[in-house]
């Protein structure tokens, strides 16, 4: 009975805080035309205290989206343009010798911000990409002998061009696994594109101002962690992840030869976190199976390795995830 009361109380708290989402969405809509899924994915990542990897061709407002979000949240924003000649020190910072003081001083890099845009991350070699790993996972950076905690909230949004494009490097599996979500961005509709033309033809865009504080975001993140997940939902999440490792046990023998390796335990953690954030966005203090299904593709698509046979047959991880969701029993 107390559990029911707690969920009811949590629902009331979430309802009182729902104005935050409406403010952010209305602010984003003043800059971003369409792209509802992109905006929702950024909010899921922010609420779940995770990171987002966006894939799409240039010009689809990926950069504009996180810059707008940072403005609305009154947070420090930095952009890192990844290029083939970028060095790890260009991301995290380095030690510089001061002749005047006769000692080394720390010069912090652009990673020291609340919102970091790693633009075209797959244009830089693996050494530079991996410089982000500690910051993303541990929320800290080590320069020389010193370790610095990063300010909260901390969200990395990395953009990448499709791998087939010239001059791109595939991200290491260990790094892609650190991203809570991988979101595929598509082209706008004709109506949306006409609206984009009108917005950009205007002499000046409306000035955006901060609508919420960093402290409010941190408070919301704490509320999201309290969202209730029933044991049946936990089992559902585990079954989905295990179906990528042992598909034959779930009646998915036909995709067994398509999967090189299944999702790691970090996939289960991320699916639970993202589901909680999505439930919060729906105004609920508890997770239902529809929340898990809504975020499943974005959470899982970068955590499944495809065999050569799958790639030869143009099978995508999205198709595999859809098959799994169709087969795994819903609680």
CATH homologous superfamily of the largest domain?
Answer: P-loop containing nucleotide triphosphate hydrolases
CATH fold descriptor of the largest domain: Rossmann fold
How many H/I helices? 14
Q: What is the strand arrangement across the widest sheet?
A: 2-5-8-1-9
Biggest sheet overview: 5 strands, parallel
String of helices and strands: HHEHEHEEEHHEEEHEHHHEHHEHH
Number of strands: 11
Write the CATH architecture name of the largest domain: 3-Layer(aba) Sandwich
Our estimate of the beta-strand percent is 5-15%
Low-confidence stretches: 1-5
Indicate the percent of residues in helices.
40-55%
Distance between the termini: 21 Å
Can you tell me the CATH class of the largest domain?
A: Alpha Beta
Which radius of gyration do the C-alpha atoms yield?
21 Å
Shape descriptor: globular
Average residue pLDDT? 84
Domain module tally: 2
Q: By helix and strand content, what is the structural category?
A: alpha/beta
